[in-house]
Specification:
Length: about 210
């Protein structure tokens, strides 16, 4: 009577029920009050569309490969599994949604079954409709709700290298990755020979080199 409500039917008609559900979770911690604002709903909707495109080719046809995932892809998946499982235990659904978005960005154009199946199960409590449909498209006759929830395998999260920011005269010029076992001498010798570094040094010898392991 006061015209101070938003009819959920309008949101569902324009964005879908899964978008509404995820956006409500994304607004903030479950136990806190949040102002309703539809300005950010497009971000969640774009995420779900991007997730759907992982299962299709450029023409929109279903396309999932049995290709072996890379180490980076497995790391992105298991990092997301770990974060989402912890957040669900703490009812921190908003940070779970953020973790999904980060994972999808890190996966890029990944269309591999070994990555997408556990990711579909993981997303199911947040977006039940789209994941149920995708689970069926993946060839399963049972419901995704009956699938075993994915477990994080810590071996995929072990870091073997670190990406160092390279600063010259106080400004970030490039980034370079080195094994964690690399010594300061190894890093210094290699970085001084990099074309990007030599270009900024303009042929001059560095007066001072600081390496923070």
């Amino acid at each position: 009577s006061m015209f101070n409500v938003v009819n959920p039917d309008y949101i569902v008609d324009n964005y879908g029920a899964d978008t509404l559900r995820m956006y409500e979770m994304f607004l903030g911690p479950l136990e806190q009050s949040k102002p309703w604002d539809t300005n950010g709903i497009d971000g969640v909707h774009k995420f779900l569309r991007k997730f759907w495109r992982l299962f299709t080719d450029k023409d929109g046809n279903f396309s999932v490969s049995d290709e072996e995932p890379t180490k980076a892809e497995m790391k992105a998946l298991h990092k997301c599994i770990k974060k989402v499982r912890e957040d669900i235990e703490n009812f921190s659904f908003n940070t779970s949604v953020a973790a999904f978005m980060i994972c999808i960005n890190e996966l890029g154009e990944c269309h591999k079954r070994e990555i997408l199946e556990p990711l579909t199960i993981l997303l199911n409590p947040f977006a039940p409709h789209i994941t149920e449909q995708l689970w069926s498209m993946l060839g399963h006759e049972d419901s995704v709700c009956d699938a075993s929830y994915p477990l994080c395998e810590e071996k995929y999260l072990v870091e073997s290298a670190f990406e160092y920011p390279v600063m010259i005269n106080g400004k970030l010029r490039c980034k370079q990755q080195y094994p964690l076992t690399a010594t300061k001498a190894d890093i210094e010798a290699d970085i001084l020979n990099k074309e990007e570094v030599q270009r900024w040094m303009e042929g001059a010898a560095p007066k001072k080199i600081i390496i923070v392991p």
